[in-house]
Design a protein that fits this description.
Elements (H helix, E strand, L loop, with lengths): L8 H15 L2 H4 L2 H9 L5 H36 L3 H17 L18 H19 L1 H11 L3 H28 L3 H38 L1
Helix pairs in contact: 1-7, 1-8, 1-9, 3-8, 4-6, 4-8, 5-7, 5-9, 6-7
Length: 223
């Protein structure tokens, strides 16, 4: 079966949305404001918060673009070995979506991002690299789902999927950075209290994405 080379805009929207919600995982968001406050240091101006979060997002993109390359290479091999890879991927997404909703723990290697001694914008970039790797373990079901989704989409889709996943993670990073710089502690506390609900919402999106993949395959059978 030939791999699809077009751009799947629905899948890219899924990746971007999943990236946003990944940051709000209960184990991911709890310590984030403290990390951001550390890297902002004495200069907690709005412009520094925005610039720092953009640089942090570039660090995330660096990590996930590399993972996108791995996904593309793996997909090339798997598409030759598993003719119905898109069907299998859809089923896996549905299972992982329900696992996310039910808060099923999947064994994984987890570590907490450590604070770099390098502050300033360099520290923000390094934090983006480390936080991207830590996020893989913290939101394992979401990450695995995006990885599974990307391997059957071709080289361009694989790269764009993870770049938009990282960009999605950058949105709440920027919002939180702005809130920290403006000392909006009450809003941050409200977000923390809502992370469990957001995580379940993420699982629902993954189930819908899996069903969408199965529907796309069904449509190809009708052609």
């Amino acid at each position: 079966m030939c791999r699809k080379m077009g751009v799947d805009f629905a899948g890219l929207f899924l990746a971007f949305t999943a990236g946003i919600l990944t940051i709000f995982a209960p184990c991911s968001y709890t310590l984030l404001p403290g990390y951001i406050s550390y890297y902002l240091g004495q200069d907690s101006s709005l412009s520094r918060a925005v610039t720092g979060s953009i640089i942090c997002t570039l660090g995330l993109m660096t990590v996930y673009s590399f993972i996108g390359l791995i996904s593309s290479a793996l997909g090339t091999v798997l598409n030759q070995l598993i003719p119905l890879l898109n069907v299998l991927s859809g089923i896996i997404l549905i299972i992982l979506g329900f696992a996310t909703i039910r808060e099923v723990n999947i064994p994984y290697l987890q570590f907490s991002p450590s604070l770099s001694n390098r502050k300033g914008y360099t520290g923000f970039y390094l934090f983006g690299l480390i936080y991207g790797l830590a996020g893989i373990g913290c939101s394992a079901t979401v990450f695995i789902s995006i990885f599974v989704y990307s391997i059957q989409g071709g080289f361009l889709n694989s790269i764009l999927t993870f770049l938009l996943y990282a960009a999605g993670m950058g949105v709440p990073l920027m919002i939180t950075s702005i809130l920290v710089s403006q000392t909006k502690d009450m809003i941050i506390d409200n977000i923390r209290n809502s992370t469990l609900w957001m995580h379940k919402f993420t699982g629902t999106i993954l189930v819908i994405a899996g069903l969408y993949m199965l529907y796309k395959y069904y449509q190809t059978l009708l052609v």
